Task: structure prediction
Amino acid sequence: MKKILFPLISIATLALAQNPTIAKNDPFSQMDKMFQMQMKQMELMQKQMDEMFKAYDNSAFKATPMVMSNNSILSSGLQDKGDHYEVVLNVGKGNVKADVKAKDGLLTIKVSSENKVDKNSTYGMIKSYSNSSYMQSFTLPKDANSKKISYDLKDGKLVVKIDKVKK
Result:
């Protein structure tokens, strides 16, 4: 702003010095008009951003939250399926182990995977090991039955089912 303002002031001062008829007019009126135009543009941008966030609040993203960890495990969040709640995690294929527990109204899901590759090459035996782990907790709704939790690990997905308390 300073880089623009100082040259404009010096130009206005020079114009006034060379032409006394300009002095009758306000030398800063052009700057006021430029400032007003900038303010209108910023107000328009603010209005567009407000509309964008309002649309996001009403979108499906809010209804089904997505969580992503460093190892690309995606969670659909805790979803109400009518007679039960469900969480779906994309855990990948391979040697994947899952541990699902509920305690004090909190559902905790732990997933670990281990990959081991032994490969012969012209340079000798190549051995590769990788381990990854993931943990996420969800607050269970009051009508969730923490004693009736089941899960299935199939086709790279972990599906956790939490029954609701029968009324």
Notes: Strands lie at 67-68, 74-75, 79-80, 84-90, 95-103, 106-121, 124-139, 144-154, 157-164.
